[in-house]
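Sequence in, structure out. Go.
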Amino acid sequence: MRFIFLFFCMLVLSAKAEKVSLSIRPTIMIERSDAETIYQYIKQHPQAKWAFDQEVLIAKKVLSLSPQPVKAIYYEGKVDHDPKRVACKKKLKDAEKMQSLLYAFLATKDPRFLSKSKEYILAWAKEFEPTGNPINENKLTPFLTSYYFFRSDFKADEQKIIDAWVLKLGTLNSQFGKKEMGNWKSKRLKISAMAGTILGNKTLLTYANEGIQEYIDKNLYADGRSFDMVYRDAMSYHCGGMKPLLSTLLCLPEQKNYWYNYQNADGGSVKKSVRYILPYARKEKVYPQWVNSKVKFDRIRYEKGDQHYKPGTPWRPEKGMSVFEYAQFFEPEFKDIILNLKVPSTELSVESILAEVMRKNS
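Output:
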């Protein structure tokens, strides 16, 4: 009896401590007109073929699966082992699958990956109710990049459903958070810019374009640090604010280079804030995180058992790779940084390959 009781306790503790990894890689809006160029590049370059072949392997497994959409996302404001957050992250892994399906289609032109992408996009558009929470809804941006690429393959009645969903995502994120700072604001800009690009919606694109200047003016400092970094005392949050900002710039091709180099009145800029990460990414410096965070929730996370938020925990350089995968669209030399951050370092990332091809094709 005592053994059964102890076994039951172990099961309860195990369930309580359960964590689920969720890794949303850079979300890049790819023009359908670039598809053939990307396809030919992959065929002609062995390193590129190897990188995309890994996506094909994942995507083939997805073909036998079904989407798991949710009506509401339980993520923001919850500790990582919270049962609702754990359950939701399992469903949100559909977003990871969307990225592999798109990349597999680019590499093979296999219509099965197109059909499965359509199934997943439509399922989530029918089920999930946008609320305008950018932390939660940023997890859905792979559905937006895939829809942008595959939109012409949907029937008119399907487009109507998904377009309405995309518009609601973009509109709610552009209406809320007028005085927000940090990564909440940059994620709103990203979602609104992506929705505006998909729909050709000038209101959303104007919001994003104007919001970029406001973000740079209020959030980026002359020494390269950001509001997020100072407020949370964490390189993780510095990167978390920069990634959606860079993604937003890529949705505005005519203005992207201007905003990347634009300096606010104090001398802060996107370029400086990206380059601020370099010595830490190169392991020339170590950044101890959370020591002076002004956010109570960061302490709560640690007290609840999340060691990532332990004050003094060194930032891991590989966590900055996504920033440079975006930034290489502006500074191609960051490709070398990405190679050094990958394991093994001889592999190119899919995002590096796309950046190289799309730069040449622009």
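Check: The chain has 19 helices and two strands. Strands lie at 288-289, 313-314.
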